[in-house]
Amino acid sequence: MSWWRTLLNLPPKGEHWADQRRTKQSRSRKSGKGRPQNTAPEWWAHPDGPVSPTPRQAQGVAAQYSAPPPPDAGGVMAPPRRPQQPPVERSTTAPGQPQQTHGPRQPERLRQRSPHGAHAAPTPLRAPLEPNQTPWSTEPESSFSTWARRFFRGLVVAVLLLAAISGVRSWIRPNNTPETVISGQSGYPSDEARAIATRFAVSYLNWDETNPDARPAQLSVDLASGLDPRSGWNGRGKQTAAPGYAGEVKVDPGGVAAVVDVRVQVRPFTLNGRTWSGGAYSWRRLSVPVARTQSGRVVVAGQPTFVPDDRVPLPDNMPDALAPDDDLTAATLKDAEAFFSAYAESDIKVSAVTAPGASIRSLNGVVKLDKLKDWQVFTGNDDERKATASVTWDGTGDTTLDQTYSLTLRRTVATDGAQRWQVAAVG
Question: Least crowded by CB within 10 Å, which of 160, 178, 307, 350?
Fold first, then answer.
């Protein structure tokens, strides 16, 4: 027997599963194990006449011919059998005289209802079998069906083995992704890229000829190893840069390189004799190339470049302006002035003039209200409206600053039935 048949639990070559089951059943019957043995006689073992277990419908009739068991008899009682007539010998008298029969009687045919009708022709008697002859016959199985059954059985076993192996592997090492594998744009560390690019841009625009080694030391912190931190500056002049703000991060389709948009405020200095004089502040916009290493760290991959920062018009799909409500604007003008006066001073005064349930923090005395330059309420539903306010704040000394706010108004009803529109949110 080959090893692969033993592995797949297949029968030996030339045998079938049914043959083994029959062998096991016959062994269990001989050993007395398994189901209880049938004590009724089999019809092929009695050539004198067909004998079968009595049907339930004929139990009443068969009871008349069966003798009751002895009172002290033990063991298993066999089903009742048909009554046997005493052996009759065939007659040897002459014709015309009463016949005297001698010898055994021929087996009689059981009268059974024909499934094809009452007038159907009776079927011939089945020839009795030999004592060692089985009442069934085996049919050979085609080689294709045998091969197909074994193939699909082996396929099922292989699938189960693969499922078990993959399942055990996922239990031992779940979500095991090597650190050296770099994914696409969705997993790119954009926040870290902005931080590295901003710090590098500020260091890149800071230089001082009186301390030429300070700039390369600061650039080497974020610059990739192998790149020269002294390149790009000739070592002359002085300039300071701070603060810096990072914007969009454009990631390469490969998921390794990216470009960060950074804006930095700078101030140049001019040497007058032995004194440096500071000039006007201005903003510079740079495009800083970065790359993600296999360890996950983001480094600067090269020298940044200047990018123009031009003004652009508003998009064409801006939301339409709301229609003004002049009547409600005039009715709520005094309430708006009271709100902005309290909004500049303290939280307690703000909570007294806002709508119930609103949570608005004040400016805590940083500025004071000079005047409400413009106030406009727009149309909407009966419970909530949008409004805009142009406010002039008093700063330090004679300084004033104009700002525009967007507000949400909510209609409130007092206990006496009076209605008011109060600020529910700022912005």
Answer: 178
C-alpha to C-alpha distance for 293 and 299, rounded to whole angstroms = 8
CA 70 to CA 53: how far, in whole Å? 21
* Cβ-proximal residues to 372 (8 Å cutoff; 6+ apart), any chain: 333, 336, 337, 340, 389, 390, 391, 392
- Both tokens of 148, joined, read 């197909």
Distance, in Å, from the CA atom of 271 to the CA atom of 332, rounded to the nearest integer, reads: 58
Residue 130 is classified by DSSP as P
Task: Output the DSSP codes for 256-297.
Answer: SEEEEEEEEEEEEEEEETTEEEE---EEEEEEEEEEE-TTS-
Q: Digits of tens for pLDDT over the chain (427 positions)?
A: 677 777 677 777 766 666 555 555 555 555 555 555 555 555 555 555 555 555 554 555 455 555 555 555 455 555 555 555 555 555 555 555 555 555 555 555 555 555 555 566 666 666 676 777 666 666 665 677 777 888 888 888 888 888 888 776 665 665 544 333 344 556 899 999 999 999 999 999 999 999 999 999 999 999 999 999 998 899 999 999 999 999 999 999 999 999 999 999 999 999 998 899 999 999 999 999 999 998 889 999 999 999 998 888 988 888 888 899 999 999 999 999 999 999 999 999 999 999 999 999 999 999 999 999 999 999 999 999 999 999 999 988 889 999 999 999 999 988 777 889 999 999 8
Enter the pTM of the model: 0.50
Q: Which of 416, 408, 349 is nearest to 384 (CA)?
A: 408
